[in-house]
Each structure stands twice: as structure tokens, then as C-alpha cells.
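Board notes (copied after class):
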Amino acid sequence: MVFFKARPNWQQPHSRVTPEGIFWRRRRFMTSLIGAGVGLAAASAGGCQRSTTIDADLARTLGEPLPGVPRNQAFADAGREPTPQQYASSYNNFYEFGGSKDIWARAQALPTDPWRLEVTGLVKKPTTYNLADLTQRFDLEERIYRFRCVEAWAMVVPWIGFPMRALMAAVEPTAAAKYVRFTSFYDPEVNPGPNFGFARDLPWPYTEGLTVDEMANELAFFAVGVYGRTLPKQHGAPIRMVVPWKYGFKGAKSIVKIEFVAEQPATYWNTLAPNEYKFEANVEPDVPHPRWSQAKERLVGESTALFTWKEQPTVIYNGYGEWVAGLYG
């Protein structure tokens, strides 16, 4: 069921429009030792101005067309124009393939066919889906969502997929299920993580988690496509989580297992640095990261430097409070 909502203030026509000049810029992803692992840090941007034309090598990674997918009008306006794909598909966090933003070429090593997605745990109908199932067994729709990274930058992405609660209806969680664990593809020969000597000690595979109530929320989404095409590998092909009221690291990529469980599961960044990356990880401007403020976010702009990008105030729950505030009292 689709819930049509009045547009919040940030969706009104006078809202800022994302410029088209910067997402190709490379920004280093700084890491710092935290015990036996690493922690996420803010960083500066660098690099030269790039053409807005999609590079031929990048274009070959952008998936197959998904024609005829309807746009969900409840999520048709994110308050800014979608980030151009040549930037959004070449500026990605995918830690399994390294710590920099320009991992799109390395991510092409991800094997996606054949693919198996196992849904198990406290469900009445455990099921394993193959690659075709992900685009054929559920009704696909397009949703344009705001995206907010914990590093305090923001973008807008037109995802194609289906609500998470459609999968819940198919597998029927039991009353004992209180949480959901999502596990990403991992093969140390394919995606070993950053090229650091201690990378073998990181808690692979990448896992994330939600409460059952969060997964059942109207906003919670499984993406199998983006920008009108099947999901590129750098975005987490063939299926990834999209939970736009949370920081981006909550969106596990290349999911191979979904498990309904009774207890809160361990998750990747929360395991590495629980004082910095909470399990809940909602976008909250009044709750700073221990090393930087979350009160403002930087929009991609015309400059080559992160700290000259235009700023705007961060909105609680990334502007989606009317859909999710009730989950948190």
C-alpha cells in the first residue's frame, strides 16, 4: 500500500537544486586505528574538474535498462534534482573494495551471476531468491530519495526496487522475530577490504541490522536498480538496502543473506567503533559524531574542495520524520 503524504518543507519548490559540477571529485576516505580495526573519518576533497559526460569505461558499468518501472508519486520529489549519474556512480563508499571513493572500477570484480539471496531465521516461509527473482517476483517502482552520509555530505538518488515489507509478507516473520540481520557478499580473494596490513582483522563479512518495525516501515526499500537501469556493482549489485532516514553506512550492499532474529545483531561499523557508529544510526543534527558535528551537511557544489561546498542545516531523520518519528517515541 502506498501512503501519500503532504510534502515536508524541504520538498517545496524553492528548495536548493543540486548543482552538476562536483561529484566526480575524489575525496579521500581517511581511516584511523581503533583497537584492532578502523574508524570512519571526515576528509578533504581534491581532484580536477571533470566533464559532465559519462566516461566510456564508466558507462559500461551502469547496468541494463529497466523499462516501464512506475515512479511512486509519494517519493517523486526529494527537494533537489537527482545527482547526475556520472558523479553518483563514480563516487562511492564500498569498503570491501577499498577506502577511497573512486572504487567503481575495482568493484567490477564482484561476481553477480549466479546470485543467491537466502532469507531465513524466524520466518514461516524461508526462501532463497536467484538473480531473476529480484526483478521479477516483486512489483518494482522508482523512488527518489535523499541520501545522507555520516561524513556529512548529501546527494539525491532515484532508486528502483521494492518495499522491504513486500519481502516480509512473502516470508512471514514469526512473532519471535525482533531484529533483522543483513549480510553482504564477501570473498577475501575478490573484495578483501582496504589495502592495509591489519585488514585481515576487520569483522568481515559486512553486516547490518534493523528492527523488524524499521524494516516494515513504508520508507525501507530494497534497491535492484538506479537511474532507470539495473544496479551497478559499485552501488551494491544486485540488491542493496536503502533506508533514507539513516546514515548511508546502514545501507548494506550486495546482500546474500537476510536473517530474522530475536536479539540485536552485531553490525560492521558498530562493532569496530561503537562510540562513533550506533546501531540505530538515524540522521540527527543534535547528535554529533565524536569527531565532527552533524548539525550541517554539505551539498555537492561547483568547487573542488569539500569544505567550500554549500552548507545547509541537517534535518532530523533526513527530512523523513513524518514517516519514521513514531518508531522512536
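Comment from the instructor: Residues 1-51 have pLDDT under 50 and may be disordered. The first strand starts at residue 26 and ends at 27.
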